Amino acid sequence: METRLFTLFEEDEKEIFLSHMEAETYPSGEIIFTEGDKPDSMYLIEEGTVQVYFERKGKEIDLAQLSKGDFFGEMAILRKDKRSASIKTIEESRILSIDRETIINIVNQNGILAAKFLFNLAEIIAERLAKTNKEVENYFLISDALVENEAFRKLYFKTHKNN
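The chain above was modelled as a monomer; its predicted structure follows.
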């Protein structure tokens, strides 16, 4: 299984970690979890593709598409807050899961393995945060231009009137 979650792992460490994960196959269009659900596990995509989204005012807002080697639901490992987005399969997907309690057991039994996993997880989350920060900056600039620049506002609404 190739994933950035295992970047620092030796092959035997990868096998140890994978042995703690449970596999399940989901059909296309299956909702894995919904925004607001109580978190229990994080997931690693072994095969397939999923959509990350949330709903506002009756519309699905697509946040990302994830595929083989990607993971989601990691906040369940780090925090106990409700799910912040929904996940559904785009195609049949084989997905591995691991719950918070199992991660805590790994931390207690094998600190080096846990440290590698958590370092890899932190690095990927930091990259996602940097990307989100850039997107927020872009939305701010668009919003500011809509308020401050009448020509931009007219052009924007002319090109987006059907959205």
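The mean pLDDT is 92.
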